[in-house]
Amino acid sequence: MYIAYDENIDERFKRYFPIMKAVTGLLGNQCETVIHDFSNHNESIVAMMGNVTERQLYAPLTSFVLEILKKEGDEAEDRIGYITYYKGKPYRCSTIFIRDGKELIGCLCINYCVQDFFALKRITEQLTTSRSVLELEKEAKDEYFAQSVEDFVDNTVQKIIARNGKDLTKLTKAERLDLIRQLDQTGVFLVKGTVEMLAERMNMSKYTIYNDIDEVRK
After folding, report:
1. Is residue 171 packed enough to be buried (19+ CB in 10 Å), middle (13-18) or exposed (0-12)?
2. Whole-angstrom Cα distance, residue 96 to residue 153?
3. Are the CB atoms for 109 and 94 separated by under 8 Å?
4. 57, 65, 97, 114: which one has the fewest Cβ atoms less than 10 Å from its Cβ?
5. Residues 186 and 161 sit within 8 Å (Cβ to Cβ)
6. Looking at the DSSP assignment, which residues form a beta bridge with residue 3?
7. What is the pTM of this model?
8. pLDDT of 51-107, one tens digit each?
9. Where is the Transcriptional regulator DauR-like HTH domain (predicted)?
10. What is the widest separation between alpha-carbon atoms in the chain?
């Protein structure tokens, strides 16, 4: 079993190690369990057991978790058993938020690749009346397992660009503000360095981006 963790990990997270080992050991090499430390969104992974998303220690938070934090803050609720896709493969995932009292300090994520089960289900659903794979796919959550901050920002920005079909360097102010608003709703600006990377891609000053963020939040 692949096991990696930060030698200086917060002691409050170590209590979850036996659970991580039990879950990953039970479900096998198609499963991983991950702890994210919210004290640093840019390098949040501080422990991993199993590895199916090919990330390493200190990879950033996923877009899905960031969006939850953006919308729900300290009141964030656990997400259990949702479906997401990564590199074309389906994953059944759970995200359990970790608190110290009322303080939200991190989360434990369980990611289980169910590609083989989906293939089997497609065959067997012809003989059953259970919910189809297509129904499950329609409910899939949008979650990207970034390898680095740059990878995370690129993926988030590219999804918005694809949706709008615009050249980043040729946006009108109204279009730029709409782009910033959409990005802000994803929680991407919670990741340190996002503004600088976006400014470089838009060929403008980071201070312009900061001003735009302030404007769309009014």
Report:
1. middle
2. 24
3. yes
4. 57
5. no
6. 49
7. 0.71
8. 999 999 999 999 899 999 999 999 999 999 999 988 888 899 999 999 999 899 999
9. 153-213
10. 60
